[in-house]
Amino acid sequence: MSKRLGMAIDQERCIGCEACSVACRLENETDLLWIKVETQGGVEKDTPSGTHPNLTMNFLPRLCNHCDNPPCVEVCPVDALIKQKDGPVILDKDLCTGCKACITECPYNIISFNEKSNLAEKCNLCVHRINQGVEPFCVICCEGQALFFGDLNDPNSKISQLISSRNTFQILSEKGTDPCVYYCPPKPKMNL
Amino acid sequence: MKSKEEVKKVRTACPAHCGIDCCGILAHVKGDRVIKLEPADFPDRRDNRICLRGLNSLDITYHPDRLKYPMKRIGERGEGKFERISWDEAFNIIIEKFKKISERYGWKSIGWVLGGPGAGTTKFGAYLRLASLTQSTRVSAWGYGDAGLPCGSRVIFGSQFPYIYLFGKFWQRKWPDLLIVWGTNPGESAPLQTMRKILDAKETGTQVIVIDPRFTITASKADDYLSVKPGTDSALALGLMNIIFQKKHHDVEFIKLHTNGSYLVRIDNGKFLRGNDIEAKKAKAYVCWNESSNSPEIVRRSNIKSSKILGTFNVNGIECKTAFQMLLELAKEFPAEKVAEICGISKEKIIKLAERIGTSNSVTFFTYMGFTRTYHGDISLRGLATVASVTGNVATSFSSGYIPAVLNWDPFLKAIPDKPSFHRLGILNLYEAVISGKPYPIKALWFAFINFLNQCVDCNKIINKFFPKLDFIVQTELFMTPTARYADILLPVCSFLEFSDFLPHPYPYLQLQQRVIKPLYESKSDVRIVAELAEKLGFGDYFQGGEEGLIDLILDNPSLEGVNREILKDKALNLRELPEGSKFPLTFQTPSSKIEIYAEQLVADGQALPVYLEPLETPLNPEGKKYQLGFIQGHSRFRTHSMFANVDSLLKLNPEPIVEINPIDAKNRKIFDDDMVTVVNDRARTILKARISESVKPGVVNITEGWWIDQFKEGSVNHLTHDVINPVQEKVYEPNMHMNDVAVDIIKKREG
Question: Which of A4, A78, B86, B142 has the most crowded CB, counting CB atoms within 10 A?
Fold first, then answer.
């Protein structure tokens, strides 16, 4: 079976620090946030929902979902976006014309537009690192060790084992995009 | 051609985070420029790490605002007008000023204010060594928030820190059944050494409880959360103990063997009954009541197991109780209902937590400095440690794991063995020393790695009464901080990539902070600056070899045999490992050599037991009070204290100071999200944006510490804080600043 490279994000371990966002920006030399950490709780960042002291707050790092059926690839008029056989959806800056079709089409609203270069930008799953046999930079910089990278088709990979041992979800799975990014929601609390 | 240049990788370590996290860093260097930082390997790869601040360190090193050359002030202090001078000129001015001042007032009147050196050792040590040689004054900076915990720890454990006793085993990845994170937010302040391990523990089934006035990121990860009013932690501790004692969940054997709980205390004067009171040969020995002989006996290792921990006894006409009996009686005054009222926690949760503590096989109590930044924060620590002690959850020995390193501090603390060393002044005592000359006048200050004005209490007092009294101020800095503006001579220092130091952190590792690139501009490391100054003062021999020389010196201890700079260049080393099954005792340097649940030294102060005393300012019952909100300063993951506050990439994620206020308090004051508000008390007003958030307890407001004064519309966090000294802390160790014990109120700022 061919590889299906992807990510698993363990919300139980994510502390919302945004080191992934920072790491991504440094690695990819961009000013834009290819990874955005959303607070699941109150309206504002880092605020909980509920009434003090009965509160909940979780974090959801959002990045390109590297869909198996990527709508962005479908609409790109110049083939700047391709779905690699082994998983990553790659945006080739040299081919992009900045038409924004992908940005409109992406159901995750996660493709950025760089106002300086007038081009689209997004997470390429650090394909330049993967090709050298090292993990995406966000993964090795994650403070909570909540990010997992690997081959989803290899049942022995750490990522597959995490996914099989936990509840998981894909964002907007009903859209039929079949993301290669899986999320493990927080475990139930052991209240006093 | 240039782009083909080879990329060299150098292992170093980030010293920024107060010695706790201390990430290993692999710097990628191209030519003379660092182009990238990534996590370096540790012997245990689970410890590879770098936080979001450390990742951005190049934005500090290559920050356009870095101070590039020495400067002397030409405008008024605080105005920020400076003129470039040479290093020679800077040293000449300093030497001349120091000579003048020392001739008139003595070297004692010259103080070195050394802030948080991070994990750094020799950059701190260099100043100590020069202070020792010149017999000038070392101003200890423990008191700017970090003295409360040592005050409490010294009393109960006889140790500067309680960490090894309370959570040394946790750091060794020995997970407890129950982990209580009390008054600290490691999710932001210590994400790697602590929070990551909390998440690991949780994965294996450890139940995690957080006690905090704020629902922090750490609290959001916990299984349950107790929201406590600031400064009431010792009431909670007593309430927990009361339930534990009533249900007989306390560990009788541990109390007998490792605490002074069975020692008899005289009711008439609160002192321990001694040998001479029962006509024993050992006149000063402690006395316990022996259960088998039903009589008082001198405490011995052989009879302590037969001692009674409860009871009232009449010994030769002297009424006595065991120390534990006294603790139990004190705890009885704190039934759950009363504690619920004092602390603002539901009674049910208090009872459940006490039962969980009492019935768990192992409990780890985790805390740092946060809750000790209240007026009686030292007792809060003692309260927590007493709960841990009476339930047998304090480590008294290690049977495996790594033994902390002992560094060769002697040559720094006392440079010439047979001569007196430096004078020592707590930073909170410095205020009076400068302003009114008590206990002795301080006329010149040298600030190093401290943003004094920004991070110390009562800014207006510092600006209006403190700085004007000083004849001379030197500051070593990377940037024109709020404090630097007040310097007479401003010296540019290196970022951590430009000099070497030895870092004995994070546990269980030793690391070299290895110089990666040459100092930028005209900057020098603190060690180099001190060494050159020492040379001019005739003490050059004591600083031979610069940074490397001092690293070799501090490594010169038998516990560090085989550890040297060469070995540490490419890797972090483990500390010395204990063979499995061996026993490494942890001693208690208290008067009794035991955990002192009863402290005789504090009888006259009414604090022999971990009593509950109300906070100084925090308005527990706000009705009728002028300022009705308790103000606290949490930590932000975007800064290490005031470091990184000027880094653009972090400001993009966290652009400006905000005050967090609970919706109930906001509604009462007609405040809406993003309103500009004034936080006010008698000392100052601070203007910033409001964030309405359920995360803070009603009655509490939070502004994270470390924002620079210039980043507020007016005022700052420490414009609002006070410099009141707690005399007991002064007696025990050193008085602390109580940044989390401050009353304020908030009013909506009117337009215009």
Answer: B142
